Amino acid sequence: MLLDVRNLSVEYVTPKGPAYAVNDVSFSLKKGGRLGLVGESGSGKSTTVLALMRLLRGGRIEADGIDLDGRELTGLSDPAYRKLRFADMAMVPQGAMSSLNPVLRISEQMGDIFDDHGVRHGRSERRAILGDLLERVGLSANVQDRYPHELSGGMKQRVCIAMAIALGPDLILADEPTSALDVMVQKQVLATLGRVQRELGAGILLIGHDMALMAHFVDDLGVMYAGRLVETGPVRRLFAKPRHPYTKMLIDSLPSFERRGTFKGIPGVGPSLLTQLEGCPFHPRCPMATDICRSKRPDPRPVDAEEPRHLAACHLAEELS
Ligand code: SF4
Ligand code: MG
């Protein structure tokens, strides 16, 4: 197993009291595998990724375990974590526009990754290495001489992918890497991300809004709601036989032709993160809710006789048609 996360929770202190952004989330990803996390904004997807990278501002992270390739990360010191970033796990951030420094040439920003990890190169060697990285993501080598404002959105996102793979990480975390781009460019950039991930043999955790785009990319899918993972399993099983009403509503809300289209969400609003709702967090929006749903929280459990890895957190999973 490449990544095994057990009961990850993230709590923020706010003036109105604690906010429960992520609650007891558990998932795993095998070496070279592709796992997607979908959910509405505020469902805790980005927070989960930032917690794994230990790049959260102010949130308190708790976990029974975060195992990366046999290494337990929860007890690691901050300096050890800094070494791990890029080298073992790297992130392609949401919105390359804001993550690149506007006053530095691409070569400087990419070079910093090597410098920060104590990798020294001679001048021409460094140039060749950066050029090679850029070519691997479909850019020309001399893009390194440019400033971010001289590049299109898609090119900037490709630069971010090149940076993420610079040190050959085992795990890539991608937070809506294509959400700011138009549809054609999205597909091309995602295809590039998938290709470099396969070439590296890295695993990828992809966060996204677009259920359909996601379904074509990942092997396994996790659906998040109110900071909880409500359904997980092989993406084909989830689409063929969703076992959580929320997942089913998301799939049903996609345009029916080839089930393509963007994540529209469903009627109603998610619960405030400031309250830990009693019972199932989805019950105020769930058409199937009964008394037990309002009093007892459902834990993720196997719900699919043909696929033991298919889990759902719903009391009535078996009754979903
Ligand atoms: Fe709906 Fe109840 Fe299942 Fe929650 S546990 S999703 S409220 S049926
Ligand atoms: Mg987000």
Automatic annotation (TrEMBL):
Write down a Pfam family by its short name: oligo_HPY
Please tell me whether the keyword Cell membrane is annotated for this protein: yes
Key words, A-Z: ATP-binding, Cell membrane, Membrane, Nucleotide-binding, Transport
Database matches in InterPro entries = AAA+_ATPase, ABC_Ni/Peptide_Import, ABC_transporter-like_ATP-bd, ABC_transporter-like_CS, Oligopep_ABC_C, P-loop_NTPase
One Gene Ontology term from the biological process aspect of the record: peptide transport
The protein's matches in Gene3D superfamilies, at most eight in alphabetical order, are given as: P-loop containing nucleotide triphosphate hydrolases (3.40.50.300)
Q: Where is the signal peptide?
A: none
Q: How does the UniProt record describe the way this protein sits in the membrane? A: Peripheral membrane protein
Q: ABC transporter domain: which residues?
A: 5-251
Query: Where found in the cell?
Result: Cell inner membrane
Record PANTHER family: DIPEPTIDE TRANSPORT ATP-BINDING PROTEIN DPPD (PTHR43297:SF2), OLIGOPEPTIDE TRANSPORT ATP-BINDING PROTEIN APPD (PTHR43297)
What this protein is called in its record is ATP-binding cassette domain-containing protein
